Amino acid sequence: MGYDGKGQRVIKDASQLEATWNAIGPGECILEAFIDFTREVSVLVARGVDGETVLYGPIENEHADHILDVSVLPAPGTTPAIAHEAARIATRVAEGLDAVGLLCVEMFQTWNGALLVNEIAPRPHNSGHLTIEGCRTSQFEQQVRAVAGLPLGSPESLRPAAMANLLGDLWYAPNGAPREPNWSAALAEGASLHLYGKESPRAGRKMGHLTILGDTPEAVRDAARAARERLRS
Q1: Under CATH, domain 38-230 is a member of which superfamily?
Q2: Are 162 and 223 within 8 A, CB to CB?
Q3: What is the DSSP letter of 152?
Q4: Strands (DSSP E) along the chain, which ranges?
Q5: pLDDT tens for residues 80-113?
Q6: Which of 32, 40, 43 is nearest to 9 (CA)?
Q7: Do the beta carbons of residue 92 and residue 100 sit within 8 Å?
Q8: Which residues contact 189 (CB under 8 A, 6 or more apart)?
Q9: Is the pLDDT of residue 79 over 90?
């Protein structure tokens, strides 16, 4: 199974089949239909040992080069009907798997409003990192509560929140020379910084993230991107 675009190839016509097969190498593969979708959303389900369930989301996820780039809660422009359907699907998946703990259900939203599950992650998820600052109970605390048999916390969203991933590319100048990101410039506008303690930055490697809270989903999405860009200054 591919992750962050790894091990995946897009086949646009039959003439590419042989070259694609040779590029992937021998072994079992999964052939999937290409989905023409408008965006990806995720719903985090926290489910306790007694079946108690609380939800976060829908969260809108934007990708760059097949890697999660920015997540926003609440997902901008989500109608009550779409939010209800996303919650229903995620809950059904968690109950069907008899999951305990955190389960992230990612879905494609198609042009006609349909939601199709495209990935399931049985753990706290990158798109849920914004719950640390943005929600009454973070996904990480919720995971502990769920598996320990404690009452689940409130998933209430305190304010619109956006998370921007920080990849190892930020630790290098355009000429390839190593450099330290300009942390003070990014944090001056109220961003929260989380670094993961990884020693070796490299292109495409998730090294941390920034989270910003604000008044609207659109505003925090733009602010998170701007804060990350200031790291290059």
Answers
A1: ATP-grasp fold, B domain (3.30.470.20)
A2: yes
A3: P
A4: 37-47, 53-64, 67-73, 101-110, 115-121, 161-167, 192-195, 206-213
A5: 999 999 999 999 999 999 999 999 999 999 999 9
A6: 32
A7: no
A8: 212, 223, 226, 227, 230
A9: yes
